[in-house]
């Protein structure tokens, strides 16, 4: 979705030029020609960023900003002043009212684009930090609900989350992508809530029909997340973590880079935890043995580049604290279910 920018400027030629520059850069632009009109546009649809001149008829930029900041929708809104007036007093007034930046006129097209991108990027990080904690508490509750129903799971979800975050950081993912990963890793087995207890905790091998039902947990989990708007970006982690590089995985049989990077990353983290922890059908491997198995399966089951990156962070010692979280074998035999 395009970021919405409100430009408030009484110079018609300048505002039209700014609008063309920003629209060409991929933004959705709304124009107002004075502070009063800008305030009306703001109240009609809250933008993602306001760019405003200072000196305008009817209502100047300072007064408009002051009014916006008094309203709930305007309190966190990024605000950029553009003005030929750039005295220390003007800049002090802008900062006191809560402006994020002050771009002196005249300015070039790239200067404008850079200023807009910087303000929007900062707002996304701040907004994400502000909402993430509340969302995370809900996600943790859901993850614990999955753990409570699966006798095997233990601290599997938390370990997979940490492995996945370590791998993503090694790939230089940004803060926004890491926040989505945080949710996705915790919820990757959410669909198991739709699997009957008797099947989820069955002792012994599953029948073909039972496997077919168990494998539906990826699609069921994705459907659950689709009902919650702020969790939709995490769907690829839930839907695609059982796809295989060679196309023999499920639910869609995707191959190679057709598989979303989120699913490929989750598959590596999930498999490593499965290989290094107790299972009803196998004993734990050492981390070194597990890495050899991942490398053997690179190019058939897992993304080769991600496997090598995971090996590198293991060799740097970054996974040691997570490996220390591994549980002992449970006292009673759990189901032969998947991770």
Question: Can you describe this structure?
Answer:
The protein has 339 residues and is α/β, with parallel strands linked by helices. The protein has 2 domains: 4-119, Response regulator (Rossmann fold, 3-Layer(aba) Sandwich); 150-323, Hypothetical protein af1432 (Orthogonal Bundle), CATH 1.10.3210.10. The chain has helices at residues 12-24, 35-44, 61-69, 88-97, 109-149, 156-170, 175-186, 197-200, 208-214, 217-226, 235-240, 261-276, 287-297, 304-315, 320-323; strands at 4-8, 28-32, 49-52, 79-83, 101-104. A 5-stranded parallel sheet has the order 2-1-3-4-5, sandwiched between helices. It starts with a strand and ends in a 16-residue tail after the last helix.
* Domains (count): 2
Strand order of the largest sheet: 2-1-3-4-5
Count of strand segments: 5
Architecture of the largest domain, CATH level 2?
Answer: Orthogonal Bundle
> What structural class do the secondary elements suggest?
alpha/beta
What keywords describe this structure?
5-stranded parallel sheet, 15 helices, alpha/beta, Rossmann fold, single chain, Hypothetical protein af1432, 339 residues, 2 domains
Question: What's this entry about, in short?
Answer:
With 339 residues, this protein is of the alpha/beta class.
């Amino acid at each position: 979705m395009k970021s919405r920018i409100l430009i408030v400027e009484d110079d018609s030629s300048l505002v039209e030029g700014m609008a063309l520059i920003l629209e060409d850069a991929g933004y959705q632009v709304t124009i107002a020609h004075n502070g009063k009109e800008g305030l009306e546009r703001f109240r009609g649809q809250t933008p993602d960023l306001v760019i405003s001149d200072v000196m305008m008829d009817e209502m100047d930029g300072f007064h408009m900003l002051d009014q916006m900041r008094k309203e709930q929708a305007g309190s966190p809104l990024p605000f950029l002043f553009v003005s030929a007036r750039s005295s220390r007093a003007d800049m002090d007034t802008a900062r006191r009212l809560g402006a994020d930046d002050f771009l002196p006129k005249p300015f070039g097209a790239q200067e404008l684009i850079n200023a807009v991108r910087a303000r929007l990027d900062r707002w996304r990080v701040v907004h994400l930090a502000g909402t993430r904690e509340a969302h995370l508490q809900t996600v943790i509750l859901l993850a614990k609900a999955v753990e409570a129903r699966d006798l095997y799971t233990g601290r599997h979800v938390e370990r997979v989350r940490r492995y996945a975050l370590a791998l993503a950081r090694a790939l230089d993912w940004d803060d926004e992508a890491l926040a989505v990963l945080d949710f996705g890793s915790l919820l990757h087995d959410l669909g198991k809530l739709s699997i009957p207890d008797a099947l989820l905790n069955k002792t012994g091998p599953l029948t073909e029909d039972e496997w077919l039902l168990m494998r539906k947990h990826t699609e069921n989990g994705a459907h659950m997340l689709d009902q919650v708007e702020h969790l939709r970006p995490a769907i690829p982690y839930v839907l695609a973590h059982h796809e295989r590089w060679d196309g023999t995985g499920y639910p869609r049989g995707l191959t190679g880079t057709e598989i979303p990077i989120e699913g490929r990353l989750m598959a590596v983290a999930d498999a490593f935890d499965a290989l290094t922890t107790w299972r009803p059908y196998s004993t734990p491997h050492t981390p070194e043995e597990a890495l050899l198995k991942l490398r053997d399966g690179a190019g058939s089951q897992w993304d080769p580049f991600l496997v090598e990156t995971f090996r590198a962070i293991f060799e740097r010692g970054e996974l040691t604290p997570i490996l220390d979280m591994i549980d002992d074998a449970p006292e009673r035999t759990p189901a032969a279910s998947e991770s």
